[in-house]
Design brief:
It contains nine helices and 16 strands. It is an alpha+beta fold. It has one domain: tRNA-splicing ligase RtcB.
Length: about 375
């Protein structure tokens, strides 16, 4: 974990609290570095949260063991792909878990720019999205079966973020606020713009969490059918955590707004999830409550190269070799997610031993990419 001081010439620095913490998976991102933790007093930077509001991870430890999966991996993958839309796709019909979500009651209070998107948001709840989002069946060191997935707030979160980022930039332009970068445009606390963004941010974060809940229930049902004959199993542990979000928290005895972009909250005994790349290890962790990191840790391995460079650098044969033993798609459409495009996850974990302790080490046996 690194600390970075902001240059005093920036007007944004008067809101920055203490320092900016950088996680070991840090890499370039729009608005803020991916793998950064920014604490602010009385202001928030919408682009520092980013457009995939509430993106995060879900994991579940099942009562099953590895031998129960023998001969069933391909069937499980095909059923996941049939049950959970990926990419830009939506559900043809939303299920009760999505329809009954309490957040729909306040949809009318969201930014006017998304008021025509409720139907789409409803049918997208329970869908994965694209990019580095994924669904996996994994095994830990003792061959226990885990379910894991990575997703966020889908199109509705993206649109909300874009609406508010545009407002922040327009305000900075109208007030002639000097900024080192337009993406550092901010809202000041106790203004209508701040209140509107904070409301919509919390709504989108809740949507993202529920999206993972809906997908995890479908994934669990698929595995229960394949292994347990359809009888519902009882989870032994469940974890659901954001890694693109902002919350009010107390640090160094002061209440601040903590923005984690590509970082997981890791207070003492907080459970979290740190996935490796496709074909690499992943980790269930507990936080150590490191104060200098604002009680945070990395959210994954972090990219070594851009998606475009990965596509230029690797072949389909490379992808097949690097995902050997994993039931997943083996086509050129996944070259941008090839494991070699990411930092070695073991190296990232070694660099944050002061932030987290490892509870379980997982390896994928099924992977469905967005």
């Amino acid at each position: 974990m690194m600390r970075s001081k902001w240059r005093k010439t920036s007007p944004v620095c008067r809101f920055v609290f203490k320092h900016v913490s950088l996680m070991p998976d840090v890499h370039l991102g729009k608005g803020a570095l991916v793998g950064s933790v920014l604490a602010t007093k009385d202001a928030i930077v919408p682009a520092a949260v980013g457009v995939d509001i509430g993106c995060g991870m879900g994991a579940m430890l099942t009562p099953y063991v590895a031998t129960a999966l023998d001969g069933k991996l391909k069937t499980i993958r095909k059923e996941i792909e049939a049950a959970i839309p990926v990419g830009f796709e939506s559900n043809k019909k939303s299920d009760k878990a999505a329809q009954n979500w309490q957040g729909w009651r306040s949809f009318k209070d969201l930014h006017k720019g998304v008021q025509d998107l409720q139907n789409k948001a409803t049918t997208q709840m329970g869908s994965l999205g694209g990019g580095n989002h994924f669904i996996e069946v994994c095994l830990d060191e003792t061959d226990r079966v885990w379910l894991m997935l990575h997703s966020g707030s889908r199109n509705i979160g993206n649109k909300l973020a874009q609406c508010h980022i545009s407002t922040a930039k327009n305000l900075a332009r109208l007030t002639q606020t000097p900024l080192p970068d337009r993406d550092l445009a901010y809202f000041v606390r106790n203004t209508p713009e701040f209140d509107a963004y904070w409301h919509d941010l919390q709504w989108a974060q809740d949507y993202a969490r529920q999206n993972r809940v809906v997908m995890m229930a479908r994934l669990k049902a698929i595995v229960d059918r394949a292994i347990g004959g359809g009888k519902p199993s009882k989870p032994l542990l469940e974890v659901n955590c954001h890694h693109n979000y902002a919350e009010r928290e107390v640090h160094f005895d002061e209440e601040v707004y903590v923005t984690r972009k590509g970082a997981v909250r890791a207070r003492e005994n907080d459970y979290g999830i740190i996935p490796g790349s496709m074909g690499a290890k992943s980790f269930i962790i507990k936080g150590k409550g490191n104060l200098e990191s604002f009680c945070s840790c990395s959210h994954g391995a972090g990219r070594l190269m851009s998606r475009a460079k990965a596509k230029r650098s690797f072949s389909l044969d490379d992808l097949i070799a690097q995902t050997e033993g994993i039931e997943c798609r083996k086509d050129s459409g996944l070259l941008d997610e090839i494991p070699a495009a990411y930092k070695p996850i073991e190296q990232v974990m070694a660099q944050q031993s002061d932030l987290v302790e490892i509870v379980a080490t997982l390896r994928q046996v099924v992977c469905v990419k967005g």
